[in-house]
Amino acid sequence: MIRILIADDQPLVRAGLRTVLATDPELEIVAEAQDGRSALEAVERWRPDVALLDIRMPGMDGLAAAESIRARHPAVRVMIITTFDEDRYIARAVQAGVHGFLLKSGDPYELIGGVKAVMNGGTVLAPPVAHRIVGLLHGRELQDRLAARTAVQVLTPRERDVLALLGAGLSNAEIGQRLHLAEGTVKIHVSALLGKLGLANRVQAAVYAYRAGLTG
């Protein structure tokens, strides 16, 4: 039996979700809540397997509740179910580590499959949400690449050569052999480029080299 908490500030919506979920004998609604704070309290008391949270609720909203539940009760699977699919909500839900994001405008019986999927370790995203997430990630990657390609212009040609070989995973000694430099000189170049780019270590430098298009 999968134990479920429903949190939504609209009684009719809770009744509708309850009606849909009650059609499957493997699902049991153990608690309901009308805001994020009471949802968090219900999780503390009933320890459901899945928490279904609306986003816009009075007081603590669903996303804040999701963040708290994920931090305090990592075993609870959290699903957002809402009418709102704006990018700012989606991005915050992803950062909170929710396991599902469904829209109330979708097929209500997709909810049953979604609950079972997240209980089996899956992640469930409504198609419009999945499309937006791909777009957000793609847009962020493009921005990161553009920023990196602009930033490396502050490096000397030799520092860019060293950064490219860092991106290829070479050690200081191997970089020195490739560029015909003493290993100590390579260390100086590495320290200089890390400082100019504001990077903490070689791993970050390797990622930066990839984003800047220096690794081929």
TrEMBL record:
SUPFAM superfamilies: C-terminal effector domain of the bipartite response regulators, CheY-like. InterPro entries: CheY-like_superfamily (IPR011006), NreC/VraR/RcsB-like_REC (IPR058245), Sig_transdc_resp-reg_C-effctor (IPR016032), Sig_transdc_resp-reg_receiver (IPR001789), Tscrpt_reg_LuxR_C (IPR000792), WalR-like (IPR039420). Keywords: DNA-binding, Phosphoprotein, Transcription, Transcription regulation. The modification 4-aspartylphosphate is found at residue 54. Residues 148-213 form the HTH luxR-type domain. GO terms for biological process: phosphorelay signal transduction system; regulation of DNA-templated transcription. CDD domains: LuxR_C_like, REC_NarL-like. This is DNA-binding NarL/FixJ family response regulator. It comes from Actinoplanes campanulatus.
